[in-house]
Amino acid sequence: MCRSLPEFLIILLSCVVRADAYQPANTRPLTPNLIIILADDLGIGDVSAYGASDIHTPNIDSIAHQGIKFSGMRANATVCSPTRAALMTGYYADRVGVPGVIRTQPENSWGYLRPGVPTLADELRRLGYHTAIIGKWHLGLEAPNLPTQRGFDLFHGFLGDMMDSYESHLRHGVNYMRHNEQTITTTGHATDLFTEWALEFLRKEAETPETPFFLYLAYNAPHFPIEPPADWLDRVRARQPELPALRLNNVAFVEHLDENIGRVLKTLTEIHSDRNTVVVFTSDNGGSIPHGQSNLPWRDGKQSHYDGGLRIPFLMKWPGVISQGSVSDYSGLTFDLMPTFIEIAQGEPNDHLDAVSLLPLLTGGQMPETRDLYFVRREGGPDYGGRSYEAFIRGDWKLLQNSPYRPLELYNLREDPFETRDRIKSNPAIARELSAALQEQIRRSGAVPWQP
User: Fold this and answer.
1) Radius of gyration of the chain measured on its C-alpha atoms
2) Sign (positive/negative) of CA torsion 186, 191, 88, 109?
3) Which of 5, 93, 253, 295 has most Cβ atoms within 10 angstroms of its Cβ?
4) How far apart are CA 269 and CA 17, in angstroms?
5) Considering Cα of 215, then 220, then 223, then 228, what sign does the dihedral take?
6) Domains, the chain, with CATH or none
7) What is the pLDDT of residues 61-120, one digit of tens each?
8) Residue 131: beta bridge partners?
9) Residue 172: phi, psi to the nearest 5?
10) 37 vs 128, 137, 261, 317, CA distance in Å?
């Protein structure tokens, strides 16, 4: 079939633009592979690309050097499950039934992933991707919410919330390690195991380069218990003997994680997929201060709606598309990756998503006007009583609670980014405006059950 001259020129120009980003069509698919590497409780102050001076994370940093570093991104929640539910669906977590942590003890579980909501894995599989999750799932222990029932072709990892030990891989004495839906018993440090399984997946995918893949590599580290391998502890102690024991253990733990991420990035190069793979590195929430983790310069940490609990490292590389060494202060949320990845995969995100695609920013364009940001967590125990507490950001202003029993607080983030001066008494009109907007967010989520 003959083509008109203008159509031919468009096709030719498209090939020239893509030449830097992609390998030749006979060796690489034009649609890029997609990887999300998600750390667990990694504070922004524990990544040297963000200014940490006592910790070395060269492999994580390399993603920033080769791509873009976001300085204004926040997690969708202050704890694990809600952020993961939002990331997988593109909706605020309570709108898919996960306002709190899904735990292995039913009486202390505060979420249930809504059946029928398409996940990122569902959407990418529909677009022709092989899909895999390696590592921590934390969105359900049984049908219909096992990973292989929510869009993933392969699951090799841990179903539960946290491990009692990175060597035993148990939780409350129960084995939640799975290969697809089969219980497996393994030996070795969980961070090393998840890396080995990820490398196996990548090498297998290299045998079918005509089909793109999506890998969701979700490490348990550096969530407590803080258990670095002995040799990593020794090398950090030799380098920085002055570090307090708590901090020493965490530094070694994170640096061991960084080494394993380096193995993943090296393997991408070895299988000739590095030029055609989008890689994102981030964390599910801020670090746990009682366990020696750092969220500096932001206030507080994990579980808190102050920015130390929400600000996260967020790095992304896409060779030939994202300019190396880029920096953005865009204020987005973790779940923005969901529509971003769908668009990169040449699909169309659902119009009703709460998340916003970052693709315009990545390709040199402008993002839409800043939108409201909403955060929620439901929790049990005497401090929370099974109730939820929320935060809400509109423009420069942030309204928050850190317990259902505490009064609301109001901060101007432009004038007071470290949230030191509560302005709620001096700015009652702003407080009323944000309270009303927050109330509407809560109302919209009220119809979604968070128990099965």
Assistant:
1) 22
2) positive
3) 93
4) 22
5) negative
6) 31-362 (3.40.720.10), 373-445 (3.30.1120.10)
7) 999 999 999 999 999 999 999 999 999 999 999 999 999 999 999 999 999 999 999 999
8) 214
9) 55, 35
10) 21, 13, 8, 12
